Amino acid sequence: MMAIGDPKQLPATVTSMDAVKNGFNRSLHERLMVDVGCDYSLLDTQYRMRPQIANFPSAVFYSSRIQDGPNVCKPSYKSTLKHRSGGPFVFVNVAGKEKKDEASCSYYNEAEANEVALILNEMYLKLPKHLHRPLQLPDKVRVITFYQGQTKCIQRILRRKNLSNILVSTVDSSQGCESDVVIVSFVRANMSGRKGFIVDEKRLNVALTRARYQLICVGHALTLRHNEKKNCDDCVLNRLIYHAKTNQCLIES
Predict the structure, then answer these.
(1) Residue 66, pLDDT score
(2) Please, are residues 167 and 210 in contact by the beta-carbon 8 Å criterion?
(3) What was the pLDDT predicted at 103?
(4) Which regions of the chain are under pLDDT 70?
(5) What is the Cα–Cα distance from 209 to 21, expressed in whole angstroms?
(6) How many CA atoms does the CB half-sphere of 168 hold within 13 Å?
(7) What DSSP character marks residue 66?
(8) Residues 146, 203: contact at Cβ < 8 Å?
(9) In angstroms, rounded to a whole number, what is the distance separating the alpha carbons of residues 157 and 93?
(10) What pLDDT shows up at residue 6?
(11) Is 32 helix (H, G, I), strand (E, B) or coil?
């Protein structure tokens, strides 16, 4: 028998709490690797992401064992879509405020949604004239967020700006997908640093590894790097902000 998968990314969705309590939210692949200790091989070369995008997830989720394929290292491996920073990875700090939808109880952040729309509009305007057409192909650009409420908020704003063809989806709906440019909206922004399930490392891993050429993170840096617990200095979100700052990829909206 051969099992193929990645226990560092999202498993199948399990809605039964009894099933979760009994460990059935963990895949057979993960149980064979972790619990039983079966031998396994790591596919250690990635052919999707530009090195500047792959550096962080490789270091944090795979102990720096993931190498870059020769195709992603070529200068020609780039997109015609451009963010104003020009770099393959950027974190845009937005001083917004999270809200909770009364009907769905899902979070949304209008300031982040507006920033996403601004980025997409700028990309469209910077396209060469012969490519000046609606950004409608999901393999070209995708917006990923952690909450269904934010998905609806972004879609509503994009419709007003005639950008309704842009694909906006949750992280859970994006596993296995990839796009030239990915914009990730983190949503959470509050004074107490509450982050909810965006701290889930598997969900973060999926969100940060969908882009080929450009990964643009949009979020409130103070909330994401806030430590709810004293022993949380090494949490992934805190490390992401530090990574962006030390690599001069953290910019203000």
Answers:
(1) 96
(2) no
(3) 86
(4) 1, 128-139, 228-234
(5) 29
(6) 24
(7) P
(8) yes
(9) 19
(10) 86
(11) helix
Direct distance between the N- and C-terminal alpha carbons of the chain, in angstroms, rounded to an integer:
51
**Packing angle between helix 148-160 and helix 110-126, nearest 10 degrees?**
50
**Per-residue confidence (pLDDT) for residue 229, from 0 to 100:** 58
Q: pLDDT (tens digit, 9 = 90+) per residue, 133-189?
A: 555 555 689 999 999 999 999 999 999 988 888 999 999 999 999 999 999 999 999
State the Cα–Cα distance between residues 123 and 25, nearest whole angstrom. 40
What is the rounded radius of gyration, in angstroms, for the C-alpha atoms of the chain? 18
**Nearest Cα to 87, choosing from 178, 177, 211, 174?**
211
Task: Please give the CATH number for the structural domain made up of 50-252.
Answer: 3.40.50.300
Q: Helix, strand or coil for residue 84? A: coil
Please report which residue ranges of the chain form alpha helices under DSSP H.
17-21, 28-30, 51-61, 110-126, 148-160, 201-208, 221-225, 236-246
List the chain domain ranges: 1-41, 50-252
**22 CB contacts (<8 Å, ≥6 apart)?**
none
Number of helical H runs and strand E runs in the chain: 8, 10
